[in-house]
Design brief:
Blueprint lengths: L1 H24 E2 L4 E2 L2 H19 L6
Antiparallel strand pairs: 1-2
Helix pairs in contact: 1-2
Length: about 60
C-alpha cells in the first residue's frame, strides 16, 4: 500500500512538471508551439502519466 502512494505521488509530480513545461512551450499569440517535436514528446509523456495516475481510480 505504501508503494502505491509513493508511485501516485511521483506520477503526480511528473504530471505537474510536464504539464507546466508544455504550457510554457505554447505561444498563445501565434497558437503554435515553440518546438513542435519536443511538444509531442511532452504531450505523450503527460497523457501517459495522467492515464497511469487515474487508472486505478476507475476500478473503485
Amino acid at each position: 500500500m505504501e508503494t502505491k502512494k509513493a508511485l501516485k505521488f511521483t506520477l503526480a509530480i511528473v504530471a505537474i512538471i510536464v504539464g507546466v513545461t508544455l504550457f510554457k512551450q505554447f505561444d498563445f499569440k501565434n497558437l503554435k508551439f515553440e518546438q513542435p517535436a519536443l511538444a509531442v514528446v511532452y504531450a505523450i509523456t503527460f497523457v501517459g502519466t495522467v492515464y497511469f495516475l487515474f487508472k486505478g481510480e476507475r476500478r473503485k
